[in-house]
Design brief:
Helix content: 25-40%
CATH superfamily: Metal-dependent hydrolases
Number of helices: 12
Structural class: alpha/beta
CATH class: Alpha Beta
Strand content: 5-15%
Distance between the termini: 39 Å
Shape: globular
CATH architecture: Alpha-Beta Barrel
Radius of gyration: 18 Å
Amino acid sequence: MPSRVSRRRLIFGAGSVAIGAGIASQLKVTQASGFLARPSGDYVDSHVHVWPKLTEKYPLDSKFTPADVDPEAFTPEEIIRLGQKEDVQRVVLIQMSFFGFDNSYMLDCISRWPKVFRGVAIIDHDAPEVAAKMIDLKRRGVRGFRLYANAKNVATWDSSPGIDAMFKTAAETQQAICMLSDPEVLPTIERMATKYPNTRIVIDHFSRIGMRGEVDQRDLERLCKLSRFDKLYVKTSAFYALGQKKEPYKDLLPMIKQLRDAFSANRLMWGSDCPYQVQGPHSYASSFALIATHADFLDENEKKAILGKTADKVFFQD
């Protein structure tokens, strides 16, 4: 099993699998927590993981042990507090791998703060009635489904009835297929986008280009090539884990600019990847600032798109 320090390797290792009016209205019901709402813009963090301290109510998946859970907890209250400081109104919760296919904790968070959170679930595509499961989860605030797109997993996609059902159902329900992908599987994503042109596809964390250090221009060009699919989106996210891995992350700006030129800002979305973005020397503010302050090649409307409007369209508009 992975150690405490290997969670980052699980997500980013080579070849591995890996908040204004809305928040203000929700925080009124949690005044005992001491939160204070403030007027702000309408930004969306498109990528956050949350989990509680371990309890019997939310058991770990059998693949994990308590030693794998680091930090000990990261709660919705914590991301709300961080978001308020940067005018982040709403958050897309990504099902935490610690819980496998049991999305209960994420769903409970959405139920408690329905104006703040939407979810990306993890489901077993080989299980029966996968389409019905997707439809039921949409009713509960799930707007996307995560797939671990590494070389081993994608090798079975073309022959998988469950993957076929997921992509077809997502097109009908307007839910997104969200891929934690390695750069080498971009050709497979291209095939899936060709086969399912009506399905929204979201690629997480720049397809992890730059996770080994310097950005590989060949990989970036392969990613930009996917811009011809008008339902394919890219998350500019997890800055702490890419390139030089140092604040203020300006070494990633050329990659963001090239993606903007290819996709337009309307198909890019910022995400922090908390809690990992706020560990060690990294901060939430520095992640937000890379787009809001340092990306001077973006005009005001483009910044608003990447920091909120794109994610709003994909994950919050019913």
